[in-house]
Design goal:
Shape: globular
Number of strands: 12
Helix content: 25-40%
Mean pLDDT: 95
Number of domains: 1
Largest sheet: 8 strands, parallel, barrel
CATH topology: TIM Barrel
Strand content: 5-15%
Structural class: alpha/beta
CATH superfamily: Glycosidases
Low-confidence stretches: none
CATH class: Alpha Beta
CATH architecture: Alpha-Beta Barrel
Amino acid sequence: MSSKFPDHFLWGGAVAANQVEGAYQTDGKGLSTSDLQPQGIFGAITPRVDGDSGIKDVAIDFYHRYPQDIALFAEMGFKCLRTSIAWTRIFPQGDEEAPNEAGLAFYDRLFDEMARYGIQPLVTLSHYEMPYGLVKQYGGWGNRKTIGFFEHYARTVFERYKHKVQHWLTFNEINMSLHAPFTGVGLAEDSSKSEIYQAIHHQLVASARAVKACHEIVPGGKIGNMLLGGILYPLSCKPEDVLETQRQNRDWLFFGDVQARGGYPAYMRRYFRENGIQVEITAEDQQALRETIDFISFSYYMSGCVTTDEAQNNTARTNILNMVPNPHLASSEWGWQIDPVGLRYLLNVLYDRYQKPLFIVENGLGAKDRVEADGSINDDYRINYLNDHLVQVAEAIDDGVEVMGYTSWGPIDLVSASKAEMSKRYGFIYVDRDDAGNGSLERRRKKSFYWYRDVIQSNGNSLKNKA
């Protein structure tokens, strides 16, 4: 296909500190909420004791092996790498006045290595983790004081890296707090809706303060939000299904509305009122929220359906977001439905709604890869998945949607977020490690490595439109 991608398009990949770095408590790192979730973001919260271990403690040892991995990303032609800063490397307990210099120095080395190859960092401030000290001492995001601790952290890293990082994100998949409160806001899973939405409100205020700080500190810096793009379709054209679909889509679009428009939408105030949800929103908070993001970033893995038929809803209680399956779509090995056209639809929905640049910062296929006798890994299923999604991105660009870039999720195999598995592989680069933590950690190029290299080199011209 002839390329519809702009010349400055940011091709690359995306990782998260807690899923790749390892180096558990190395160089003064504190205990994070992720460290207490050895079975993933939906697993039990498990206190750490001396001598125990979890797969994320080493992960893929990116902390020590990043030069090798950055060189491999450069070989593919990456223009951009999305990663996160582990908050606990900078402020181990979260409430310190002075940062941990060893933690700051690590990210200096990482960003410098990326700069050697001309790879731009896209940095998430908080990616599914926060200092456990803030949970234990203050109650996590349920406490208004956490806003100040986060702002102090954000200003610290903006000052340190203002000449190395131009693109920033505040909170990863901020709407996931509705489904995983401990992961998102450091609250117990059985917290009330009022408690969860109050914590979310504090996080939204903190996000806006970080936006203001970035604009003040980073010359020419741009900062966005990050949404889990769980777009939903009505299962039928029954008006009640269509209306319920709108309501459920607003459950997650609400976060973007606040961050991009600068205040709470009327539909959310009605929802709070009718469900007895009490959220303290001060005049100072309202003023802070007016500082809006520069661009919208989001993840996209699958779509889902909505119905008012309770019997059908009960059969959907098994997947990650309790989505009703779409009878017209196939599914991955993990039950995630594959819907490339949904990405084009979502891009148009978000651009129509916000008229801000969009950045696809996660999209990929988790699958069980097999190493052949000759050492090759023929992941044509991944190539097909990514090709078909990128073709739809090109179509959205042709629709007039402004898309800044695309960073595929997990360009190198990493520990999956949902269940902390290595066997659920996303990468173009294979890492020799299994779910039990066994393996050499050797890196190996998959077939998709060369495919993605060609996509980037051709600026999308090598994609195959199968329509």
